[in-house]
């Protein structure tokens, strides 16, 4: 299937025989951990999982606080980050649907309905309470059961349900888990049916390399000039005009070894997220999510049922393909890895990278720390790989000066214009 040389160079794989569970916050009771838990609880009752405009965007509060904590942020910085972030979010008030609007009998009836964002939190909070606080059991009960498991829609909402779920696990937080379930319900992936029951295979080639599939998409002229601007809102036009072509490339990727191909996905996501960015062109907000979602899958990997893992990787591949095309296919050539490997570390190590991140002018941006952390987590899993991961994070910290890739924005909100900027 892959006898030909790869179309895109990746770091040499480590091929670990298995993945160790990631470290978690469980058992940590120091001042920083106590501050983090208190702020997560406070945010849980104060702000909604979705935010304006029109509850289309998402709360990143646990991601910001969690990633800052895991990079070593002080209690004082955690407090500052909390106060800044909640000022951008939607306060929970009487205008939201609340209480027992969602029940065990009707919870699927309101999937994708964003106005139920807080009602779903109320429901899953009750479910956790009724399980005597066993939030892990509630996750198992709702994520992977039935012919159309909720997990098959977790790439909706730009993959934020996966990201939120991963932080709930790392932080061992039942409140963040409840929010992750709420996000999974309101952001339910519109093409989940492709995962619930795979469509006929219409592929014209086969590969186990998702990077090679993306390179072929880059060269595929059927996806040229589909949209005037970049942006995830292009997804509707894409599926209307090139549905079969999307499936052709998606079906071409064959998952023969989910563990090996998870590593491949993590490495490729670093190329897409960081290899395509630079100081002049800035970094693509949506492509970065392909890496933070890959990081989430690594965090959650040993929690996913074995029989579900291939389907989850296929969901990730579909998400990545859609995002890549919606962003008008930035160059993804054979040697894109050199944009990272050519970085001169100048003696930097992970400790100096952490210190630079925690003192960076963009530290209050809700995605900044997540991007720095992802390659760090990949190195902890897969090893140094000629400092590929360290160089990726160092490159991002040195060059990052804002996000691009939004096109015309969402409902009049253009993050590069209306979002956070350092003062």
List keywords for this structure.
423 residues; mainly alpha; 2 domains; two-stranded parallel ribbon; 2% strand
Q: Describe the largest sheet.
A: 2 strands, antiparallel
Shape: globular
Report the sheet-strand fraction: under 5%
Poorly predicted runs of 5 or more residues: none
- Helical segment count: 18
Task: Give the N-to-C terminal Cα separation.
Answer: 53 Å
Rounded to an integer in angstroms, the radius of gyration calculated over CA atoms is: 20 Å
Number of strands: 4
What is the helix/strand order? HEEHHHHHHHHHHEHHHHHHEH
Instruction: Give me the side-by-side strand order of the main sheet.
Output: 1-2
Average of per-residue pLDDT values: 97
Summed up:
The chain is 51% helix and 2% strand. The longest helix is centred in the middle third of the chain and has 18 residues, at 235-252. With 423 residues, the chain is an all-alpha fold.
